[in-house]
Amino acid sequence: MIHVTTIGIDTAKRIFFLHGEKSAGKMVLRQKLTRQQLISYLALQPLGTIAIEAVCGAHHWARTFSKLGHEVRMIHPKFVQPFVEINNND
Q1: By three-state DSSP, how is residue 8 classified?
Q2: Contact (CB, 8 A) for 16 and 7
Q3: CA nearest 50: which of 12, 7, 20?
């Protein structure tokens, strides 16, 4: 199993997109999960940093991920835009 140190999560209503990197900054994880799968998946992951966009509902997810032991960082939406790789406007 590859140790992922940072996971970025694009939150949505039903589907969540995960992007994981190891400590060197190399992408090692790209996954699409439903709400039910997300919690159980993160509970099995080694403790690390989770970055989410600070939008509606993000505080709920931040509390949930913190209870699992992960460090959560909420990022202002204007700083998330440089990370978008496709023509996404949400």
Answers
A1: strand
A2: no
A3: 7
Asked if residue 88 is part of any domain, the answer here is no
Q: Name 8's Cβ contacts closer than 8 Å, sequence gap at least 6.
A: 18, 19, 20, 21, 50, 51, 52, 83
Supply 89's token pair.
């406007």
pTM score of the predicted model: 0.80
Total tally of structural domains belonging to the chain: 1
pLDDT per residue over 4-61, tens digit each?
888 999 887 889 999 888 877 788 888 899 988 999 999 998 899 999 988 888 899 9
Report the CATH number at residue 78: 3.30.420.40
